[in-house]
Write a structure and sequence with these properties.
CATH topology of the largest domain in chain B: Heat Shock Protein 90
Radius of gyration of chain B: 36 Å
Largest interface: A-B, 27 and 29 residues
Number of helices of chain B: 9
Distance between the termini of chain A: 61 Å
Structural class of chain B: alpha+beta
Helix content of chain A: 25-40%
CATH class of the largest domain in chain B: Alpha Beta
CATH architecture of the largest domain in chain B: 2-Layer Sandwich
CATH superfamily of the largest domain in chain B: Histidine kinase-like ATPase, C-terminal domain
Oligomer: heterodimer
Shape of chain A: elongated
Number of strands of chain A: 15
Strand order of the largest sheet of chain B: 2-4-5-7-6
Strand order of the largest sheet of chain A: 2-1-3-4-5
Largest sheet of chain A: 5 strands, parallel
Largest sheet of chain B: 5 strands, mixed
Chain lengths: ~250, ~300
């Protein structure tokens, strides 16, 4: 079975390598310094299991997983992350607290061999990522992938969000980016005094609004600085007014 | 006189609210009436003898005047007492407030110094755990560095101010440990002028600044990172600059004011009552934090 280690600290990788020697059935096929390398290596090698650090340069372990279409099984390795730990406890994913002993490592491996291996990464991770990415500390940016390149969008740069089938289209100055999430997800992760769900399929950054025009019956249109016109439903208008303090 | 004494005693324990002064007035009036009635009966008794009998009508005529004088005297006493006790109470309040402020300030300083990142400790231990097999010598070395660093941070708890060179030594220890963790990615440069080494600074003041630089240098870029620290003296002020690379594309403006820098600002404010001692700037992918520390009074030794 193929294994990849993703951790930005060389010594942290070397200790996993050392412990892996005692598991000849697991073959280490790649080591990655950061999330970008991680995404590439996962696509290239299709590993069965990854060891993933959480705090890493640029994009953290969770953000990296969001970018992988069909994530493999994961064993998280982390020094200390109270919030994340809470999230793990209720899921089928194991985590190793640094520094961890060989005994603890072996336990994680055998747990995975017995149960986790048979679950798909999606089953294992879906709920976990949803919980973690709605953590308050994660809402200052959104990570997306556009034709193989990873983009980190600070939330201030988002003009508005638009629902598009199973995706949400994130409109920014540099164009639109698709993210495989629901509007409801963005409603929970984005600051409610900054982003308002003006419509079933639209959410708008209020600092981008220049004016609000009436439009057909009870509906309105929010005109943004960029010139974009965002639909505002009857209930959306009420929400918008209360947030703007009108 | 007795009446004045009683009034002042009452007011010592009961200070009227500002809108209740009418009670004090009524109190004074009651007392003056009482005193007058008392005086009248005593005088009437003592003047009952024949040679003084002619004074009795005079006494009756001056009743209102005497009542007025008594009332005025008691009122004066009351006013003086109210002023005196109010001031005393105010002084007491001020003292209490000062004490409370000092306590909370001490607690806060203690807490701010204590904010050692658990991440750092656990990750260092993890590195040592890895080194024990691959490079026992370096593992031992790192244990010593880590112990020295922890010891300085603990010892400094008791000290008010430390020499700049001591502070730099402990920063160096910290950076050496981080270098082991991050391998070739991290390099550092420390420059200081001769005079600054002997100047005094609050202990562990720079630690959060350097932690901040490491955090944004190492976690905001994927390239190699150099952290530069330079210390100089300018007009009796210690000037410390810490520079780290960052990526302007992804670093949101909020990043510059992480917890680390806020704690430094707060500490400097508590010590010097100034808010202009920490400055940050960013240019060409380099983030610079400048900290100015005013000279400490006992700097001459």
């Amino acid at each position: 079975m193929k294994v990849i280690i993703i951790d930005d600290e060389p010594l942290a990788r070397s200790i996993i390598k050392e412990y892996l020697q005692f598991h000849p059935e697991l073959e280490l096929i790649a080591e990655c310094n950061d999330g970008f390398e991680g995404v590439k290596a996962i696509q290239q090698y299709q590993p069965d299991l990854i060891f993933l650090d959480i705090q890493m340069p640029k994009i953290n372990g969770f953000e990296m997983l969001e970018l992988v279409e069909d994530p493999p099984s994961v064993i998280f390795t982390t020094a200390f992350d109270e919030y994340a730990l809470k999230a793990f406890e209720s899921h089928a994913v194991d985590y190793l607290l640094k520094p961890f002993s060989r005994g603890r490592f072996d336990k994680a491996i055998s747990k995975w061999l017995q149960t986790g291996k048979n679950l798909s990464g999606k089953e294992q991770l879906g709920q976990l990522l949803e919980t973690v990415s709605s953590s308050p500390s994660e809402q200052h940016r959104v990570v997306v992938k556009l034709s193989g390149k990873i983009r980190i969008i600070p939330v201030e740069d988002i003009h508005y969000l638009e629902a598009a089938d199973d995706y949400v289209k994130i409109h920014t100055r540099e164009g639109g980016f698709l993210k495989n999430k629901t509007m409801g997800h963005f409603e929970t992760i984005l600051n409610k005094s900054q982003f308002v769900r003006t419509h079933r399929s639209y959410m708008v950054n209020i600092s981008e609004i220049t004016r609000i025009d009436p439009y057909e019956k009870d509906n309105h249109l929010a005109i943004l600085k960029s010139g974009a016109r965002v639909p505002v439903s009857k209930t959306g208008y009420v929400k918008l007014k209360s947030v703007l303090g009108l | 006189m007795g009446a004045c004494g009683i009034v002042s005693n009452i007011l010592r324990f009961y200070l009227p609210y500002s809108n209740r002064y009418i009670y004090v007035l009524l109190l004074c009036l009651t007392f003056s009436l009482l005193v007058n009635a008392l005086g009248k009966s005593i005088l009437n008794l003592s003047l009952n003898d024949p040679p003084f009998k002619e004074y009795i009508p005079f006494l009756a005529n001056t009743y209102w005047i005497r009542l007025g004088i008594d009332f005025l005297m008691i009122c004066c006493m009351a006013v003086i007492c109210v002023l005196w006790y109010t001031q005393e109470e105010e002084q007491e309040n001020r003292q209490r407030k000062n004490d409370a402020e000092k306590l909370s300030r001490d607690a806060e300083l203690y807490k701010l110094r204590q904010q050692l990142q658990p991440h750092f400790l656990f990750n260092s231990l993890n590195s040592i755990s890895a080194l024990i097999v691959s490079n026992p010598e370096q593992a031992r070395n790192m244990i010593h560095q880590l112990s020295d660093f922890l010891r300085t941070t603990l010892r400094k708890e008791e000290e008010q101010w430390v020499k700049m060179e001591e502070e730099l030594q402990s920063l160096e220890l910290y950076l050496e440990i981080e270098k082991v963790r991050f391998g070739h990615r991290l390099s550092t440069s420390i420059v200081k002028d001769e005079r600054s080494g002997q100047m005094l600074i609050p202990p562990m003041l720079l630690q959060p600044v350097v932690e901040n630089a490491i955090k944004f240098g190492l976690y905001d870029t994927t390239e190699d990172v150099t952290i530069c620290i330079s210390v100089s003296t300018e007009n009796d002020m210690l000037k410390v600059t810490v520079q780290n690379p960052f990526d302007p594309e992804t670093a949101s403006p909020r990043h510059g004011t992480g917890f680390g820098l806020n704690s430094v600002k707060r500490r400097l404010y508590l010590l010097f009552a100034r808010t202009d001692l920490v400055e940050t700037s960013s240019m060409d992918h380099v983030f610079t934090t400048t900290i100015n520390i005013p000279k400490h009074e006992s700097d001459h030794h």
